[in-house]
Write a structure and sequence with these properties.
The protein is of the alpha/beta class and about 325 residues long. Helix content is about 40%, strand content about 15%. It has 13 helices and ten strands. It has helices spanning about 10-15, 20-35, 75-90, 110-120, 135-145, 155-165, 170-180, 200-210, 230-235, 245-260, 275-285, 305-315, 325-330; strands at about 40-50, 95-100, 125-130, 150, 185, 190, 215-220, 265, 290, 315. Strands 1, 2, 3, 4, 5, 6, 7, 8, 9 and 10 form a ten-stranded parallel beta sheet that branches. Bound molecules: S-adenosylmethionine, 6-(5-methyl-2-OXO-imidazolidin-4-yl)-hexanoic acid and iron/sulfur cluster. The site of 6-(5-methyl-2-OXO-imidazolidin-4-yl)-hexanoic acid has 17 residues, from strand 2 and strand 7.
Length: about 325
């Protein structure tokens, strides 16, 4: 069984280990529960972009940001299915659909559920991130065939209020428990490099590792500083503008050790990361990435760069057909 009783000090002590010791321990855990050279490929699509009523300080899609991202309508189901087919063709295992909503409107649910059902039918794993959900909405998504729901806690409970004021940390946890209760797997992580302290990174991972069940997927994003967002503008030109590479790898390693069976996703921010840093992240236990040229609104490494990196490192895309070791070992 996974440990869900990690104390703050235990997590802090992992972060404090000499770097090589931390990496070695993380790599041992990684090998125990996962095929160490296999990396899951996920593709993102923004199915409803911009104009979001929330004020997340990092996000280009908040109506309060002056990022130049225009508010669009919910995409048509057919257009979403074409994008999913292209992602499958490109070797993706999971298709993640994101909407810039505080929460879905009831009138949008039939269309959103049709997207889930259609993507699922193609043999892809389905993931959505639509903001806060009611119990009924979580159940409707589960019935449509939703495999994963992404809903990040983003940072420590203490730092959360510094970056978002329109909803609380508690609101996030409530949606996560509704998702669990509906039988959908949880994808939950956060962002590093928002000006938070080491203590916040410890607190962030401690919350994830002490949830009643660990999230099946843990995305670790490095802040993409977007001009016109609160954080993009605040951090521009400061020494905090980009998270220190070694500290980022430490965060990945501690996530791997504390949540051994979870998929740890090297998420946003990869475009500006060196190959060497990404290689360290894979060694530290990251085993999932977003592929393609675009995340939701920001750029991503792109498939040419990723193929070259996989070749250099001897990594192979995880096959959807193969059951995850984490499931076998559970
Ligand atoms: N509106 C939904 C929500 O907030 O749950 C879904 C979309 S939201 C864009 C998904 C996640 O992307 C956020 O929780 C955040 O962790 C991450 N994210 C957004 N903008 C980012 C940025 N500029 N850099 C890094 N991660 C970012
Ligand atoms: C997550 O943790 N990272 C993804 C996904 N969940 C939805 C989103 C990253 C967004 C990066 C900024 C952008 O594209 O606007
Ligand atoms: Fe809206 Fe999600 Fe962006 Fe926050 S992160 S502003 S909820 S789209």
């Amino acid at each position: 069984m996974n440990r869900t009783d990690w104390t703050y000090n235990e997590v802090a002590e992992l972060f404090d280990l000499p770097f090589s010791e931390l990496l070695f321990r993380a790599a041992v855990v990684h090998r125990r529960y996962h095929a160490p050279n296999e990396v899951q490929l996920c593709t993102l699509l923004s199915v409803k972009t911009g104009g979001c009523p929330e004020d997340c300080g990092y996000c280009s899609q908040s109506a309060t940001a002056e990022s130049g991202v225009k508010a669009g309508k919910l995409m048509d189901v057919d257009a979403v299915l074409s994008a999913a087919a292209a992602a499958k063709e490109a070797g993706s295992q999971r298709f993640c659909m994101g909407a810039a909503w505080r929460s879905p409107k009831e009138r949008d649910m039939p269309k959103v559920c049709a997207m889930v059902a259609g993507v699922k039918e193609m043999g892809l794993e389905t993931c959505m991130t639509l903001g806060m959900l009611t119990e009924g909405q979580a159940q409707a998504l589960a019935a449509a065939g939703l495999d994963y729901y992404n809903h990040n806690i983003d940072s420590s409970p203490e730092y959360y209020g510094e970056i978002i004021t329109t909803r609380t940390f508690e609101d996030r946890l409530e949606t996560l428990s509704r998702v669990r209760a509906a039988g959908i797997s949880v994808c939950c992580g956060g962002i590093v490099g928002m000006g938070e302290s080491r203590a916040d990174r410890v607190g962030f991972l401690q919350v994830l590792a002490t949830l009643p069940r660990h999230p099946e997927s843990v995305p670790i994003n490095a802040l993409v500083p977007i001009p016109g967002t609160v954080l993009g503008d605040l951090l521009a030109g400061t020494p905090m503008a980009q998270i220190d590479d070694i500290e980022f790898v430490r965060t990945v390693a501690v996530a791997r050790i504390t949540m051994p069976r979870s998929m740890v996703r090297l998420s946003a921010g990869r475009e500006s990361m060196s190959e060497a840093t990404q290689a360290l992240c894979f060694l530290a236990g990251a085993n999932s990435i977003f592929t393609g040229d675009k995340l939701l609104t920001a750029g991503n490494a792109g498939s040419d760069a990723d193929s070259a990196l996989f070749n250099k490192l001897g990594l192979i895309p995880m096959s959807a057909a193969e059951p995850m070791r984490s499931e076998k070992a559970a």
